[in-house]
Design brief:
Strand 2 and strand 3 form a beta hairpin. With 368 residues, the protein is mainly β. The longest helix is centred in the last third of the chain and has 7 residues. It is built from one helix and 17 strands. Helices cover 2% and strands 57% of the residues. Strands 1-2-3-4-5-7-8-13-14-15-16-17 form a twelve-stranded antiparallel barrel.
């Protein structure tokens, strides 16, 4: 596990997709019975989870093999909740996260969400497709942060401006993805086997990139605009000038290189075992990304483009009471957060995605 960088610094498809299934999850009864609607009894699942990554839960030893072993860099914690409503062949789902990532002395707060609608094909109810089914799933998901700040000791020397940078900021960083998947599931050998394939589009945006710097002993605010950089001295700097520099003479165009469109595709599968009060699931996902303009710039500057990721998810569930299930889940990514947090990837942070990453989640699911 390693750090997650921000713009200008050494710094998956939707979360949980590796466990997609065309069939509804086996239910352990209901905590409370919901009234029928049009002769159908809807099923409602509510889930609360705590996500964490640090030395104590690093069972795979990923942190020991990273440049940041023995530090808090890369620590992660988050809380997420999920509501899933099934009615006949239809299923709706919404998930929300509050996340925090540790990067040296900086903590990056993030908000994430996902909404999806899924329908089984050629079957009006779960019973008629108990042995196998196909499903179509449409989803939207995204991440946002009001302000991402990272301290740095870098410099900017161009066109008469020699600035020592102290921090960089991305204002209202956000991404949004639209995704369509085809899922197939089948019961065989006492197990549920599922496979999926899908594709989607991504849009990464922000409201501006800025920096604090020191120029000849004077503090300046740097604003990287769409056409020019404006360096404004603080009020206490006497006789200091305002610098206005066109983007074409800068070593990078911060606005253009942190906002972009992308396409992605993924496929994978899972296997699930249910035995009495226990369930065990293992899932795998392969994803590939194509970012307009961004990947070509990274390559032209001698950098490495990270456009594919392998994700593994394992989930253990125990149901001590009807309608209640305790969950323990682990997730491993070959390239940290690649595809799951698109807003963090740009020309200046691409190198940070070389690291492997993993975290665990523990939670409770209640069925109605």
């Amino acid at each position: 596990m390693a750090s997650l960088g921000l713009v200008g610094l050494p710094a998956q498809s939707a979360p949980g997709d590796a466990l997609l299934s065309a069939l509804p999850a086996a239910r352990t009864g209901s905590a409370f019975a919901l009234p029928s609607v049009g002769g159908e009894v809807p099923g409602l699942d509510l889930e609360l989870d705590r996500d964490i990554a640090n030395d104590r839960v690093d069972v795979l030893g990923l942190r020991d093999r990273s440049p940041y072993a023995g530090t808090a860099v890369g620590d992660y914690h988050g809380n997420h909740w999920r509501a899933r409503l099934g009615w006949g062949a239809w299923q709706g789902e919404f998930t929300g996260w509050r996340r925090a990532l540790q990067d040296r002395g900086d903590t990056h707060p993030l908000r994430s969400w996902q909404g999806a609608v899924q329908v089984r094909l050629g079957a009006s109810d779960a019973g008629s497709s108990a042995q196998g089914a196909w499903a179509l799933r449409a989803s939207a998901w995204g991440n946002s942060a009001p302000l991402l700040t990272r301290r740095t000791a870098g410099s900017l020397n161009v066109d008469g401006l020699s600035a020592e940078l102290t921090d960089l900021q991305i204002r209202r960083a956000r991404d949004r993805q639209w995704q369509l998947d085809l899922i197939g599931s089948r019961q065989a050998l006492g197990l549920r086997w599922s496979g999926f394939a899908g594709a989607g589009t991504s849009r990464v945006r922000n409201d501006g990139v800025a920096a604090r710097s020191t120029v000849a002993g004077c503090s300046f605010q740097l604003d990287f605009g769409r056409e020019r950089l404006v360096a404004t001295p603080d009020a206490g700097c006497q006789d200091a000038l305002i610098f206005v520099i066109p983007n074409r003479v800068l070593p990078y165009d911060a606005q253009a290189e942190t906002t972009y469109r992308a396409r992605f595709a993924h496929l994978g599968g899972s296997v699930r075992l249910s035995e009495g009060d226990w369930t065990l699931a293992l899932g795998y996902e392969y994803q590939r990304w194509r970012r307009e303009g961004i990947d070509a710039l990274v390559t032209s500057r001698g950098g490495v483009v990270y456009d594919l990721n392998h994700t593994l998810i394992g989930e253990l569930g125990w149901s001590p009471l009807a309608g209640m299930q305790w969950l323990l889940r682990g997730q491993y990514m070959q390239h940290q957060w690649l595809g799951e947090l698109p807003l963090a990837y740009n020309t200046l942070t691409a190198s940070r995605f070389s690291q492997r990453y993993g975290f665990v989640s523990a939670g409770l699911r209640v069925s109605f």
